[in-house]
Amino acid sequence: MFAGSPAEEVQALFYAQHWAEANGEPDPAAREQAAAQYGEPIVRDMELALRMIRAGNLLGNTFDNILHIVTFGKWGAEQ
Question: Taking the model in full, what pTM does it have?
């Protein structure tokens, strides 16, 4: 799945994927495992970046939907 990624980053990528799939509520064991490998400050920084990405995606999706509604379907994505 993460072929070509540096070996030392693969667990971080799995954690980020798990975090996203769990809607920002990761399994505590997964978080502990990531913190054990990378350290608590790095995991907090990862989670900050993940929250920022999530917020951007949600805002973008919301804006796109509003655009679709106010232009009567001419712009924005169809739902």
Answer: 0.85
